[in-house]
Amino acid sequence: MNTLTGRSDRRAGFPSVARLAVISTLAMLAACERPPVDVVQGGYRGTGMVTLINPRMDALQAPNNRVPPPLPAAPTAGPLAGSVYKNVQVLKDLNIAQFARVMVAMTQWVAPPDQSCGYCHSVANMASDQRYTKVVARRMLQMVRHINSDWKSHVGATGVTCYTCHRGHVVPQQVWFESPGESAGGGMTAANPDLYSPLATIGGSSLPYDPFTPYLLHAMPIRVNSTGALPDGNRSSIQQTETTYALMMHMSTALGVNCDYCHNTRSTPIWSTSTPKRVTAWYGIRMARELNVDYMTPLTATFPTARRGVLGDVAKIDCATCHQGIFKPLYGVSMAKDYPELEGTMTPPAPAATPAASAGSAPSGASGGATTR
Known about the structure:
By secondary structure, this protein is mainly α. It is built from twelve helices and two strands.
């Protein structure tokens, strides 16, 4: 009430309304990217094939992607570790200086600082296989050499080291276990609450939460696009389609990119107009599957129960294990070039299989048809 005129002032409520409008606007904009945002064109003009790069998000990723300085190179001459030390099974082709260099590097890349060599070795008898961690580490060294030698179709000349996945942790931060699925009691209330719930591993989508077992452990075909009219043109179920998209969402999140990083958004299934990165990803899926089947799963009995999943399986590899949110692990910096000891045997090897023979057949459907990765 205005004391001079005796009339109500309707404008008295305006400041509150204005504040509410401002707050509502800010709330709606909170989920939007604020500038500056960099745009990198990765495909054909007019198809929207661009990658958005947020410098602020990159800054948050930077600490986890710093590459530790390499250790001083070891002399190339000297007695072989396999002839000097007992029970050397993988690095016996290195001389003792090269062998020691790899061991020191591994303690920095994997072992806890307070345990150092004792994390894998029995300090009283370094040759002993008493600790399961030593048996696992030996197999992981074989795996690293195998990747660097036989999976250049995916890792190229960049290669990998133990640090690529571990980043100073005894267990890589991004691994997966087989899912138990729904509870045994039956009924809606007994269903696993994680089923079709938004999960970070699949980009926050409400899709099947385990696309890894069918595609990165088993060899279920990754194809959902029809090549002809129903019923014969497409035998993929809706569940298979959803699981495929869950894997694609995982890959997008794991690399920190959009779908158009690999696919032409005009026609997703067409190989001939996709980017070359799609072929690299095709090999990456097969590499992860082979590593899970040939290297991780056989170690199941070696790991203690506490280190296994609820179904008793071991931790396994997916795209995020190496990439960890970056389109190229460690921003594409090659650590392997500084550690030739991990590139393969240091003696002249027998003729290696071609990448296609090691990785599986070349991508099919290059001229179109079903999405196959």
